[in-house]
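Journal club side-thread
Mid-discussion, someone asked how the predicted structure for our own chain would compare to the paper's figures. Pasting it here so we can look after the session.
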Amino acid sequence: LQPITAHIAQLAMTTQALPQRAACALHLVYAIACGAKFLLNSEEYIDSLSTIFVQSECDFIVRFPFNHGLLDGLIMLIFHIVQIDPQKSIGTLIDCGLFYILWQQLRAAFRSFYPNSMNEEISLITTPDWILISRDGIHQLLQLTLELFFQRMHKCLSLLIQSESVMFESLSMMLSKELTEQLDVKSSSFLTTEVITLTCNIFMFPFSIETSETFLERTLELCQRYDIIQKLLWVTMTYLSMDRIEVPVGLIAQLSYYQETARKTISQMLMNDVQ
């Protein structure tokens, strides 16, 4: 394993083909799990990977083994790099644009599941193929995102509320009935619960006392646009046990404090339950 891993680590730094990069990353992640050692300059790797994403047309169709998506290995390897050397890797990951690019790719994958735009009524008409990213890949990206928010909160908040709403829209989809049903397709309640909890944790950051009014106002605007309160109420009641509702309920409380529409939605839902 050691000789081929060293060769693949070198290929991971030099190949200009995105599918090859993804395959190399997947091998390296499994090699790490097996205890293999290799050299990889984290800053150069992240920077070069962002360049390849920008240059690539991303119109590839590649099927990865063991239910992995194309992005899975890249996300897992980046998450490993961030955990090993956060001081060097996190700034590069955000500044070179790779973190944002990963969320762009995720939104593109999610939008391919929906026949209409997010501003219209949406429904899944086909089962997602999960070629670009798997369910576990989504979980890994959320874990990576939460780590980056803890380390570089204000930079990440700027990405969360930016004008194109790439991250916010993608996160809102993770709370949608359509996507959570796909996450739960194999009755994987653990994965569904983790995705919901991590998403809510990320949404809580704009309500921190350290954030500005600008962040908060923009967050509330986007929460209303993407019907976050309705989605939160639905996923909380449908999927979460009593010992896992603390974070979603905390987010619901924040939204109901700041938004009259959220309070009306909660009241209406309670009335419907009574009836």
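Post-session note: The chain is about 70% helix and 0% strand.
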